Amino acid sequence: MPQTKELLHVLAVDDSLVDRKVIERLLKISSFTAVESGSSALQYLGLDGEKSSSVEFDRVNLIITDYSMPGMSGYQLLKKLKTSSALRKIPVVIMSSENIMSRIDRCLEQGAEDFLVKPVKLSDVERLKDYMLKGQGEDDKVKAAYKRKLQEDDPSSQSLSKRPPLVN
Fold it and tell me: Could you give the 3-state DSSP secondary structure of residue 41?
């Protein structure tokens, strides 16, 4: 059986190299791909009309994207993903340095799992772990094994089962 770290895959979309690196470091528990724009994300996922040269989209368990990017915003990317029959089940988390309630509400109404205010903190990662487990392609046994692995790897963090429920 492959190692748990290889079972889950995160696609991070942010025009800031620094923010992509922070996300990558915080999400050290999963395999990770970072791209710099919404159009690059669509290309990676094979939604741009061209054949994707990267990992198959069915291996992506979470997409985390910046809201404000040149060209295509994270909100526009979210809308495209949620209208795709093949990709709409992949959880999408939007992040932004601006805490604008109407923006947050619009993203959540469009289907985002969560909206994180930058800088992303270690405490945010706990919520992201739950979203990764919701991503398509994982059966219940793999999810249960992964949750156990997360708890073993990070004994200082609060147990996922003891955390208060998330409010969507």
Answer: helix
Give CA–CA dist 155/64, Å, rounded: 25
- Which of 107, 110, 123 lies closest to 66 in space, CA to CA? 107
Please give the model's pTM, rounded to 2 decimal places. 0.72
> Which strand (E) or helix (H) includes residue 19?
helix 17-26
> What is the 3-class SS of 105-148, one letter each residue?
HHHHHHCCCEEEECCCCHHHHHHHHHHHHHCCCCCHHHHHHHHH
Q: What is the pLDDT of residue 139?
A: 43
Structure token pair of residue 41: 């994300």
The proportion of the chain whose per-residue pLDDT surpasses 70, expressed as a percent, equals 68
Question: Which pLDDT tens digit goes with each residue over 101-138?
Answer: 999 999 999 999 999 999 888 888 878 877 777 654 44
Please give the pLDDT value at position 164.
Answer: 42
Exposure string over 67-81, b if 16+ CB within 10 A, otherwise e: bebeebbbbbbbebb
